[in-house]
């Protein structure tokens, strides 16, 4: 894992915080989850952002699914960027493959290949963008829940 910047795991830019890291091997899927947990823990402890247990778990799940897909279907490295913006953690995963992911229709009888289905179900927003080289997948997870457990400030449709 190579973290962007001069050794700092987080940078504060214009009122938001972010971290980026490049990953090349399948063993680094766990490192991507660890980076996500560390980033959100620091965002709460150091910067005072509210991070619910639900948001912590869902962000790690989404990062794990997206980085796993890159490792399975795309050659070369991937770049993970996490940014807190507008009360949500914005997750961005870039890879070098030009092949866009296929979201399969719901099929409870299908074994496997439910990753993007799960990601789309737990995120406030999900998008795929073609890049000059490869593609970028973005997803957002709202950080705070209300005391009754409902999501506050849901983003997107």
| Amino- and carboxy-terminal Cα gap | 34 Å
Portion in strands: 25-35%
Helix content: 25-40%
What is the arithmetic mean of pLDDT? 83
Rg calculated over all Cα atoms: 15 Å
Overall number of strands: 7
Q: Spans with pLDDT under 50 lasting ≥5 residues?
A: 1-9, 147-157
The description of the largest β-sheet is: 7 strands, antiparallel
Overall spatial form: globular
Continuous helix count: 3
Order of helices and strands: EEEHHEEHEE
**SS-based class:** alpha+beta
List the helices and strands and how they pair.
Layout: E1 2-3, E2 11-13, E3 16-23, H1 28-45, H2 53-73, E4 78-85, E5 88-95, H3 115-122, E6 125-130, E7 135-142
Antiparallel strand pairs: 1-3, 2-3, 3-4, 4-5, 5-7, 6-7
Helix pairs in contact: 1-2, 2-3
Can you characterise this structure?
The protein is α+β, with helices and mostly antiparallel strands and about 160 residues long. Helices cover about 30% and strands about 25% of the residues. The protein has three helices and seven strands. Strands 1, 2, 3, 4, 5, 6 and 7 form a seven-stranded antiparallel beta sheet that branches. α1 (about 30-45) packs antiparallel against α2 (about 55-75). Mean pLDDT is about 85; it is low at about 1-10 and about 145-155.
Compact overview of the structure:
The protein has helices at 28-45, 53-73, 115-122, and strands spanning 2-3, 11-13, 16-23, 78-85, 88-95, 125-130, 135-142.
């Amino acid at each position: 894992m190579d973290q962007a910047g001069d050794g700092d795991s987080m940078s504060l830019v214009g009122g938001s915080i972010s971290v980026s890291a490049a990953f090349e091997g399948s063993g680094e899927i766990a490192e991507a989850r660890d980076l996500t947990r560390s980033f959100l823990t620091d965002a709460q402890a150091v910067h005072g952002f509210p991070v619910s247990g639900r948001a912590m778990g869902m962000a790690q799940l989404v990062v794990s699914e997206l980085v796993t897909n890159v490792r399975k279907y795309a050659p070369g490295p991937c770049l993970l960027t996490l940014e807190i913006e507008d009360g949500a953690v914005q997750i961005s995963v870039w890879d070098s493959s030009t092949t866009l992911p296929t979201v399969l229709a719901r099929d409870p009888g299908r074994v496997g290949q439910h990753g993007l289905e799960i990601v789309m179900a737990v995120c406030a927003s999900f998008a795929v963008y073609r890049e000059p080289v490869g593609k970028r997948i973005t997803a957002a997870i709202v950080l705070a829940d209300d005391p009754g457990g409902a999501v506050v400030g849901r983003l997107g449709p």
